[in-house]
Amino acid sequence: MTPIMSKSDAAALVSAARIRRGLTWAEIAKELGAPLVWTTAALLGQHPMTREQAARACAFLGLEDEVAESLQLQPSRGSAPEVMSDPTVYRFVEALSVYGPALKELIHEEFGDGIMSAINFQVDISRRPDPDGDRVVVTFDGKFLDYKW
């Protein structure tokens, strides 16, 4: 019996197939009928997919059943240090370093003592035209979880 392919190996095959087929993440998400950011994260190994989602994604990308098997596994979420230091990813770290304390204060002021869930959570990305250069709009949409004592 062979071991199940690692999620990182499956992600590398997904990325290669996407590039070689000239597909966008949006086209894959549309094929799966799933949200864009979630689909991208799942195919990069950060969420488990259902058997049907994994099979459909692999059929669309021309990948083997071994990749679909891996895509269904529970992930070890998070990113390696080299990923976190990538300039695009690091801008998010930097933004939260600067604005995180203010967002915390504003969440507490508006909602009370609690946190925004990152489990009951959606994230979206869009482009907003601007005369000074297009803007990246990232929306975090998490359920408020109050501390119950």
UniProtKB/TrEMBL annotation:
<dbReference type="InterPro" id="IPR008076">
    <property type="entry name" value="Cyanase"/>
</dbReference>
<dbReference type="InterPro" id="IPR048564">
    <property type="entry name" value="CYNS_N"/>
</dbReference>
<feature type="active site">
    <location>
        <position position="91"/>
    </location>
</feature>
<comment type="function">
    <text>Catalyzes the reaction of cyanate with bicarbonate to produce ammonia and carbon dioxide.</text>
</comment>
<feature type="domain" description="Cyanate lyase C-terminal">
    <location>
        <begin position="78"/>
        <end position="149"/>
    </location>
</feature>
<comment type="similarity">
    <text>Belongs to the cyanase family.</text>
</comment>
<dbReference type="Pfam" id="PF21291">
    <property type="entry name" value="CYNS_N"/>
</dbReference>
<dbReference type="Pfam" id="PF02560">
    <property type="entry name" value="Cyanate_lyase"/>
</dbReference>
<feature type="active site">
    <location>
        <position position="117"/>
    </location>
</feature>
<feature type="active site">
    <location>
        <position position="94"/>
    </location>
</feature>
<dbReference type="InterPro" id="IPR036581">
    <property type="entry name" value="Cyanate_lyase_C_sf"/>
</dbReference>
<protein>
    <recommendedName>
        <fullName>Cyanate hydratase</fullName>
        <ecNumber>4.2.1.104</ecNumber>
    </recommendedName>
</protein>
<dbReference type="GO" id="GO:0008824">
    <property type="term" value="F:cyanate hydratase activity"/>
</dbReference>
<keyword id="KW-0456">Lyase</keyword>
<dbReference type="InterPro" id="IPR010982">
    <property type="entry name" value="Lambda_DNA-bd_dom_sf"/>
</dbReference>
<dbReference type="InterPro" id="IPR003712">
    <property type="entry name" value="Cyanate_lyase_C"/>
</dbReference>
